[in-house]
Design goal:
This protein has 425 residues and is mainly alpha-helical. It contains 17 helices and two strands. The protein is globular. The model has no long low-confidence stretch (mean pLDDT 87).
């Protein structure tokens, strides 16, 4: 008999999924886009995540399944080209998240040990961490779980200590006035910044995959979603306050790929820089480890539902063949796209996916006992945020937008071709 997951473990899954490598990767990007309004940008993104979590709560209770998001989309829209395309996008979005984590690892690692130069070292470390995590996934799934459980504790202890010391150190810091409203970007740019870094919140949906194993589901599932999302919103806002209040905007721009470590330097000197760098490496490595596992399972679930070729249910070295495909695609993306393009593509993917999940929640509100206003509001918020993100980034980061739109087009086209020419009922 499988051991049931308690409330603490369920909350840990949500927090661990969100506080993976995302905050280490996108914090600098958020400050560049929002300036002193960075905490507000994180709040905007957090509100969308919180509203969407309502749909996940209701759908998780009504349709408990390890397929999680895949199950919810299929339940709301049937086994159609549309649902298949969205589920394909979920798999590819996992690959984008992996690329984001690998990018963060490649940016932080050279600060501890330089091999050639920062540019070459980035590619070396980003590739090595993906290869290493893939090897661990093939070696033992149990090891993957153990790494994640310890990593969640370590990174939270370090980040909470950073927050506590950082708040204390803000007193008298000459950069503190940067947080005042006159240093905020325009409201639309604050929303854009929040949407570009929305990928830092997407991990709460991993709770859905664990729902069948959660004890006392009626009470613990809502608490797990809401407590984890609210905790992370507060954590991110305070981290943003400490970072913007500790470093000048110029310094943040210079160190944007590893800004959280740089923010620890005024507080704790070089020791603080090293500690946060180590925390970033642990966090991104554990996130890559867990997301590789999750991504391979998503591809397996989609193939089992006949939305992708059944060959993806085959085993290769005792793991779904999707694990190898996910790892290879991650290596390609992390070594060809810059951080902002990866982040934009990931946010476009998850905003579209979450808008569809909210729409599923709305369509199934009678069956799930939902207040249909909330999932409808989530759908509208995600859709508007997606439109703002694409419109604003079209001029600022056309590469990221084009990559995102191509990925969406590819996912739906591949599903149409499969259903039209290969799939037989």
């Amino acid at each position: 008999m499988n051991k049931k997951i308690g409330l603490k473990e369920a909350i840990s899954i949500g927090i661990g999924g969100m506080v993976g490598g995302g905050i280490f990767a996108v914090l600098g990007l958020a400050v560049i886009l929002a300036k002193g309004g960075t905490p507000v940008a994180f709040l905007f993104a957090g509100i969308i995540a919180l509203v969407t979590s309502y749909s996940y709560v209701k759908l998780s209770l009504a349709y408990p399944d390890r397929g999680g998001t895949v199950k919810f989309v299929n339940q709301g829209f049937g086994y159609t080209v549309f649902s298949g395309g969205i589920n394909n996008l979920l798999w590819v979005s996992y690959v984008i998240m992996l690329s984001l984590y690998a990018s963060a690892f490649g940016s932080y690692a050279p600060n501890l040990f330089s091999i050639v130069n920062s540019t070459v070292d980035y590619h070396i470390y980003a590739s090595l961490v993906v290869l290493c995590a893939s090897a661990i996934n093939y070696f033992s799934i149990k090891v993957v779980g153990e790494i994640e459980s310890y990593a969640v504790i370590i990174k939270l202890i370090i980040l909470l200590a950073f927050v506590a010391i950082g708040i204390y150190g803000l007193t008298g810091n000459p950069n503190l006035p940067q947080l005042s409203p006159e240093n905020w970007e325009k409201p639309l740019l604050l929303v854009t910044a929040g949407m570009v870094i929305f990928v830092a919140y997407e991990g709460f949906e991993l709770i859905a995959n664990a729902v069948p194993d959660i004890e006392n589901p009626e009470q613990n599932i809502p608490r797990a979603y809401y407590y984890s999302v609210v905790f992370v919103i507060v954590l991110y806002i305070v981290i943003a306050v400490v970072t913007v209040g500790s470093l000048s905007f110029d310094k943040i721009a210079d160190s944007k790929d590893y800004v959280l470590a740089e923010a620890a330097r005024p507080l704790l000197g070089n020791t603080g820089f090293i500690i946060i760098t180590v925390a970033a490496l642990i966090s991104t490595f554990s996130a890559i480890n867990a997301t590789l596992y999750g991504g391979s399972r998503v591809s397996y679930e989609i193939a089992e539902d006949d939305e992708l070729p059944r060959e993806l249910t085959y085993q290769l070295w005792n793991q779904p063949v999707g694990l190898l495909i996910t790892a290879v695609l991650t290596l390609i993306l992390s070594n060809t796209l810059n951080l902002e393009s990866i982040s934009t593509a990931g946010s476009v993917g998850f905003l579209l996916i979450f808008s569809v999940v909210n729409l599923s929640g709305y369509r199934l509100s009678a069956a799930t006992g939902s207040n249909n206003v909330v999932p409808l509001s989530g759908f509208v918020l995600c859709s508007l945020a997606l439109a703002v993100l694409i419109q604003q980034q079209w001029n600022a980061n056309m590469t990221g937008v084009m990559v995102a739109l191509f990925i969406v087009f590819f996912c739906f086209t591949a599903e149409w071709i499969y259903k039209r020419f290969y799939f037989r009922q």
